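dumping this here so i dont lose it
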């Protein structure tokens, strides 16, 4: 027995039923408390991640409505500015393909430990210390 030996790490099992693809388009989370506008961040046939100013709480039933389809589901997790939607039934492959083709994701904000470095510097541009990080890219 080695007292200070490192433990071998066990691989973490993937919880998602299918891989997600990064996309970017406007969505509306329709729920009994009122409609919540947001942006589709990523999507798979079983769920999606949404960015929204005030996302609904965990467990809330919603209809995710976006330009290429709609799906019924519930909020599987929620934190400030973002939430996950798990669809009740997998969305049709044609709907998923159309969303991925028509709403590809653009560049995303890369966070840096140094607040003086703007996202343009991280993405290969020249640093602009007056630029503020963007919430949604």
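and the seq i came up w/
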């Amino acid at each position: 027995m080695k007292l200070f030996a490192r433990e071998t790490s066990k691989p973490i099992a993937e919880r998602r039923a299918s891989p997600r693809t990064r996309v970017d388009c406007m969505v509306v989370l329709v729920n009994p408390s009122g409609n919540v506008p947001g942006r589709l961040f990523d999507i798979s046939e079983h769920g999606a991640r949404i960015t929204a100013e005030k996302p609904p709480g965990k467990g809330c039933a919603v209809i995710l409505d976006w330009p290429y389809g709609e799906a019924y589901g519930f909020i599987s997790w929620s934190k400030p500015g973002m939430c996950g939607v798990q669809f009740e039934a997998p969305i049709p492959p044609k709907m998923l393909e159309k969303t991925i083709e028509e709403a590809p994701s653009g560049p995303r904000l890369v966070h840096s430990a140094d607040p003086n470095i703007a996202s343009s510097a991280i993405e290969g541009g020249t640093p602009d210390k007056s630029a503020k990080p963007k919430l949604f890219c």
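Strands lie at 21-30, 36-43, 47-51, 61-66, 69-79, 82-87.
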